[in-house]
Amino acid sequence: MCTGNSCRSIIGEALINAKFDGIKAYSCGVAPSGTVNQNAKKILEQNGIWDDSYYSKHLNEVIDIEFDLVVTVCDHADETCPIFPTPINKIHVGFEDPVTKEFNAFIDIYKEIEKRLLLEIKKALK
Question: Exactly one of 63, 69, 81, 91 is catalytic; which is it?
Answer without folding.
Answer: 81
